Fold this sequence. Notes:
Blueprint: H1 2-16, H2 18-24, E1 46-49, E2 54-57, E3 62-67, E4 70-74, E5 92-94, H3 103-109, H4 139-161
Amino acid sequence: xxxxxxxxxxxxxxxxxxxxxAQVTFRVNISSQPIWGPVGYDHVEYYYLPDxxxxxxxxxxxxxxxxxxxxxxxxxxxxxxRNYDVYNSRKVVINESRPYLRHNEFKARYASSNxxxxxxxxxxxxxxxxxxxxxxxxxxxxxxxxxxxxxxxGKHNDKxxx
Length: 162
């Protein structure tokens, strides 16, 4: 009985702990990621785009870039990046708040690398889990799957109620 009470107290304290709470609220955001993002990440806060030294916030759907000595935020990249190809450029996943405030550190860490050659974009993936993204070319397959799943769930419910 003492062990049970001790375990209950530890669990209660652990749930009240702020760092534990942050881990519990961590969510999958595959459907929110841009289709130019690399596959393999269930959750992304920011992409760092080292070629143009900019960041993209997945939850906010905004780019962060330096202009006249301060960080700016926009839904689209500025005109000077019109030829930048987000599909075929290197992207680094950064899961922390406001990474652009530590830009010098990320710039130094990711200055030279050829990792992007192996990055497959969500758009080019044939993994069904990415079809949920409404911008994916095969999103209609996911919608059809969900529609059929709902029909099957309804059939199972009808059988149980008879």
